[in-house]
Amino acid sequence: MPDVLPRSEGLLRRYAAYLPLTSATPSLSLGEGGTPLVRSRRLVEQVGCAELYFKLEGCNPTGSFKDRGMVVAVAKAVEDGARAVLCASTGNTSASAAAYAAACGLQSYVLVPRGKIAQGKMAQALAYGARILAIDGNFDVALRFARALEDTRGIALVNSVNPHRIEGQKTAAFEIIEDLGDAPDLLCIPVGNAGNITAYWRGFREWRDAGRAARAPRMMGFQAAGASPIVQDRPFEDPQTIASAIRIGNPASWKGATSARDESGGAIEAVTDDEIMEAYRLLAREEGVFGEPASAASLAGALKLGREGRMPRDAVVVCVITGNGLKDPDTALTIEGDMHDVPAEFEAISRALGASR
Ligand SMILES: *Cc1c(COP(=O)(O)O)cnc(C)c1O
Questions:
Q1: How confident is the model at residue 1 (pLDDT cuts 50, 70, 90)?
Q2: What integer best gives the mean pLDDT of the chain?
Q3: pLDDT band at residue 355, thresholds of 50, 70 and 90?
Q4: Residue 82 banded pLDDT, cuts 50, 70, 90
Q5: Most exposed: 7, 184, 257, 349, by fewest CB within 10 Å?
Q6: Residue 292: what pLDDT?
Q7: How are beta strands 267-271 and 37-39 bridged, if at all?
């Protein structure tokens, strides 16, 4: 049984039986997977369901779920004799690709929209030694170029159009089933390029079909209103949202997302930037969970279902918190805080404590 291995073993070993590995696939782990499923203590009431959980994917080694797919994609690239990996990225894919490439001694090349990448993610790609090509164009344009370069000798494309990415990312669904003893009723997840919702649905379906879960959840995907091509059933030329990780106008896994929605009896809906920012703030202040803005789209969606009377009272709900809030310090610093300039004097400090009580 692969799942008796401790979670510290990494995904390739732990879920080997469910991944496309061969005897030639190198072992590789930076400690990805095995992320906490934290039970909501306070927002569960506001959402109006029976149990609410947060799957903390920001606890992965580079701070987002991208590591689950990347460990598989990079191991397979090494197996195939690649000397470099290439991706287009809104930020997290590049951080993850750069880290796993570094661990394997491969060069990484990342194509990013110039000036549109959150600071923390850019810092990571730089630190891990990626060659960063910042282009005048959005993510969708960058991905087009990356795909056109896919057949370049020795370079492996590691965007989620690489099937190994989806395979690795499905392991998050396995972990949720292990932790809850079954699948939840609803899975709320942000949708950008739509690889992750595709992957979760594959994971839930595989383990239901294997008898490891009695059911599969309804898949509830949430796009930002200004970048909601699947909701509106048309590509967005110029997608706009504060949640840069889901600022995508023409998702590569569009079909995977609509299949997940339709086969699970779920929905893909839009949440506004205001709703995203409210959920972002509440998640940190009411639960002690600091996700990045895109991650808060899942909670924004759950709160919206509750507000509109569409959340079943007896439901067990999991919100996927896809990335760590530290990725995007600029956005964090825009929220209203409780900061004061105080003289370095006992009396003044003591008074300030009282004033803020
Ligand atoms: C990549 C990413 C998403 C979107 O996932 P897709 O698979 O592109 O739909 C959401 N949140 C964060 C933090 C991400 O890095």
A1: very low
A2: 95
A3: low
A4: very high
A5: 349
A6: 97
A7: unpaired
Collect all residues with Cβ–Cβ distance below 8 Å to 268 and sequence separation of at least 6. Answer: 191, 197, 220, 221, 222, 223, 230, 231, 257, 258, 261
Work out the number of other CB atoms within 10 angstroms of the CB of residue 341: 6
Can you give the pLDDT at residue 8? 81
CA nearest to 188, candidates 275, 119, 255, 120: 275
Ligand 1 in reach of 140 Cβ (< 6 A): no
Nearest residue (by CA) to ligand 1, atom 5, is 192
Q: How far is the CA of 128 from the centre of ligand 1 (A)?
A: 20
CA distances in angstroms from 281 to 293, 300, 320, listed in the order given: 9, 10, 16
What is the mean pLDDT of the segment spanning 247-274? 97
Distance from C-alpha of 278 to C-alpha of 306, rounded to nearest angstrom: 15
Distance from C-alpha of 278 to C-alpha of 219, rounded to nearest angstrom = 22
Ligand 1 centre distance from Cα of residue 347 (Å) = 48
User: Do 213 and 259 touch, CB atoms closer than 8 A?
Assistant: no
Q: Residues 316, 49: contact at Cβ < 8 Å?
A: yes
* Polymer length in residues for the chain: 357
Backbone angles phi, psi at 183, to 5 degrees: -75, 155
How far does residue 245's CA lie from ligand 1's centre (Å)?
5
Distance from C-alpha of 167 to C-alpha of 71, rounded to nearest angstrom: 10
Sign of torsion over alpha carbons 218, 220, 189, 299: negative
Q: How far apart are CA 32 and CA 15, in angstroms?
A: 12
